[in-house]
Amino acid sequence: MFDEEYLDSLPSEPILALDKVVNEAIDKWNSLTEYNRSKEYEFFLEAFTIIQAISANVEELKVSPDILLESTPKEVVQKIIDFCESVKIKISKCKVRLKSEQLQNKYQAKFGNVFAYEFSKGDLERIQRLINELRDTITASELFEEQHKQRLLARLEKIQSELHKKVSDLDHLWGLVGDAGVVFGKFGESAKPFVDRIREIANITWRTQSRAEELPSDTPMSLISNDDNKANK
After folding, report:
1. Source organism's superkingdom (predicted)?
2. Which of 12, 43, 59, 232 gets the highest tally of CB atoms within 10 A of its CB?
3. Measured between alpha carbons, how far is 10 from 83 in angstroms, rounded to an integer?
4. Looking at the domain assignment, is residue 233 inside a domain?
5. What residue spans of the chain are helical by DSSP H?
6. Tell me: the pLDDT tens digits for 151-196?
7. E runs forming strands in 142-231
8. In the chain, how long is the greatest CA-to-CA distance?
9. Is the dihedral of CA 190, 172, 220, 164 positive or negative?
10. Within this chain, do residues 70 and 156 fall inside the same structural domain, yes or no?
11. All residues at 6 or more sequence positions from 107 whose CB lies less than 8 Å from its CB, including other chains
12. Are the beta carbons of 117 and 209 closer than 8 angstroms?
């Protein structure tokens, strides 16, 4: 159940990932008879371990492993389900806070209350098209292992869902450059269709960022190298 493909499919936002795993555990509990629940204790124990790992990134939802000490399989399952039921309320509150923060960032950026990067209409539409092309390229490609493919598709989905004319940061787009480097390093010229599209997204992103930072319009995009570091010493 909790294989690498499942873990890769979890949302990158810890609260949403927790919500998904907790619901998986509760749904599993509800689908089993009382007799079979204790037989599936390893499933619930693994779910709880995943919840522990994810919750380490959410201060108000951190989990103590002590709740399972000196327990029989039947007791383990019951304790985990009791925990999941109780933590669902906390997760719901966190989801409201998260959504509120997302909406605040979105509309503050849109209406100029905070610093924002603004794409031109044409650039925004072009990035959306490039992301769609990337998705099609990845889906059809035989280069990628299934787990890698799912990670990339999940990243593209997240980027597209957060892409607006005005955004408070460009980190999600710059993150694609790292993906392009990994793919090119693995597959070389075979990855050209993938890398070329990310290169174009990076160029648009740089143009948008340099304009917002009031750099000269012809400022080239450059990366810091070891030679640059030596020159600055």
Report:
1. Bacteria
2. 43
3. 20
4. no
5. 4-9, 14-31, 34-37, 41-55, 73-110, 121-140, 146-162, 171-187, 192-212, 226-232
6. 888 888 888 887 888 887 888 888 888 888 888 888 888 888 899 9
7. 166-167
8. 71
9. positive
10. no
11. none
12. yes
